[in-house]
Amino acid sequence: MSSVPVTTWSLEQTSPSDLLPAAAPDGDVRIVRAEAPSPEFSRFLYASVGGDIHWTDRLDWTYARWQEYLERPGVETWVAYDRGTPAGYVELEPQDEGTVEIVYFGLIPAFRGQRIGGHLLSYGAARAWDLAERWPGRTPTKRVWLHTCSKDGEHAMGNYQRRGFKLFDTKVELEPEVATPGPWPGAYPA
Q1: pLDDT per residue as tens digits for the range 62-76
Q2: What positions does the domain N-acetyltransferase occupy (predicted)?
């Protein structure tokens, strides 16, 4: 099996004032928290958003593992809907000492390029900053961070930087070369 170099960039905000929100897109775009843990829905979002950009680390998760992860206090999934259709999501995971990671963020390919991504990222980062208000007993957020890599969409890094995230680490590692998993062959134009 061949390997490819993959660059991973880690970015952060250290104050709510770091957030530079994008304007909301035109049309009927709503962002709603998926409050009921649903492994089926979360796996749908994960596979649909990441299928063409090599998201593979959760594809072998069992139903029970998804359920356990989603039921952890403070884990939140915020879903963007365009005219009632899921368009993308942002997943938040609280960590120690007031840190919140944006674990996953992205749009289903059919909804990319419509200015939904900047709006969804802005909204997700704002929800990371106020996460403790929804989860009594959690430490107020002091830092929001995420990572992106050279396998992600070509506009990912620019979107993060335009929203006020600052680079704090870069790593290059060899990873096995794997085919994009889909969601199914031929689903999106090349």
Answers
A1: 999 999 999 999 999
A2: 29-190
Helix/strand/coil for 162: helix
Q: Name the β-bridge partners of 92.
A: 76, 102
- H or E element at residue 133: helix 131-134
The residues pairing with 10 across neighbouring beta strands, listed in sequence order, are: 147, 169
CA torsion angle 146 161 76 58 (round to 10)? -50
Tokens of 12: 């952060």
Residue 152 CB contacts under 8 Å (≥ 6 apart), including other chains: 53, 106
SS3 state at 157 = helix
Name the nearest CA neighbour of 113 among 154, 79, 84. Answer: 154
Report the candidate in 22, 17, 6 with the shortest Cα–Cα distance to residue 163: 22
Share of the chain above pLDDT 90, in %: 85
Tell me if 109 sits within 8 A of 189, measured CB to CB.
no
Tell me: pLDDT of 98 over 70: yes
* CA distances for 40 relative to 35, 75, 89, angstroms: 14, 16, 14
